[in-house]
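sorry for the late reply, my laptop died twice this morning and i had to redo everyting from scratch. anyway the thing you sent over, i finally got around to it. pasting the sequence first so we're on the same page, its 405 residues, then the predicted structure underneath. double check i copied it right bc i was rushing
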Amino acid sequence: MTAHRVYALVVALQLIPLSSIAPQAAVLELEGSSSFELRTFPNAKTYPSQHRSVFSPSISLEPELIYETDSGNDRFTLIPFARLDAHDDQRSHFDLREANWLHLADSWDLQVGLGKVFWGVTESRHLVDIINQTDAVENTDGEDKLGQPMINYNLLTDWGSFGFFVLPGFRERTFADDDARLRGPRPIQQDDATYDSRSENKHVDVALRWAHSIGDVDIGLSHFHGTSREPRAIASTRSDGVSVFIPHYDQIDQTGIDAQLTKNAWLWKIESIVRSGHGDRFGAAVAGVEYTFYQVYDSASDIGVIAEYQYDGRDPDAPVTISNNDLFFGVRWTANDENDTSALAGTIVDRVTQETAISIEAERRLDDHWKAEIEGRMTENVPTHGSFAGITHDDHLILRLTRFF
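ok and here's the structure:
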């Protein structure tokens, strides 16, 4: 080879990105967080068997281990979660939030294992979100979920994405211990749960979802067939004479739609479902609007104002809901600063009884590794047989300090 040809080859090689001639190295990442949490209950306990402690501390750990192959087409994720609580034995628990393999292709992907899936657009209630079970001992807002065994195939097309789910195995809802705060009017015998299905918690559920963006509208249609994530509370009496509730999980069919229209500073949102299997077939919906004021008073802060209406037409044979004819009003503040400071305050008011639930949430990143949060849950105007009658003395404040690694 002549000298000028060698020189030309060297120049050409310098113009070729290294990633195109050398395989991408596999990536193994370990990160996650640990938290110290303090729940404070300023009011006296409701039931004699409950702990009298005003302060209830706990610690949690949630590491995330992610391995991605050198091709970038396969990813293995492991996210265990553990909490140790000083006063609630049921809240001291371990769960695999995620433990799955994900394969990515040009127009489809496949996930196998324990995973988490979220559907929905509204703020005050997530009606269509049905894949994962609620981890009710973690928080009363319903945002924390247990990992769900699944085979999830997603097909990406010009007409939207199509998701198909096979859910082999059911996770029972978690509940507060008999002597813990937030337990409700009767202890719940969660270990004695009953089912419609002969397969009990081994029933294989199925679901499908289509999602697409059409102009300014994001829309999703879904259907679920299987074991309800909401249990009915069956009154019973233990051998020691104590009145208890036993969870019962029905077989249901649920068809849902969720949509969001974005117009400048306006967000118009709706979620609606039709469900059968809890007595008579019924419909439910939550719809509302969010308007954001940007750079308030020439600052970097944004303020969003939220209003939503909740309707639920279920009959008394269905699991109890607090959102059958309610209004939600909320305010979201985002500082848009380097510490990601934000806050959200909301109120849900029953239009008939005026029973009210109030929530506040605020967070601020202290530095690259630490974040502080505060949450509050309170009730007002609770009638004797109101939705919150069993926990009306359990107003509480949560202080949380999280370390990321």
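Residues 106 and 156 are 9 Å apart (CA to CA).
thats about all i looked at so far, will dig more tmrw
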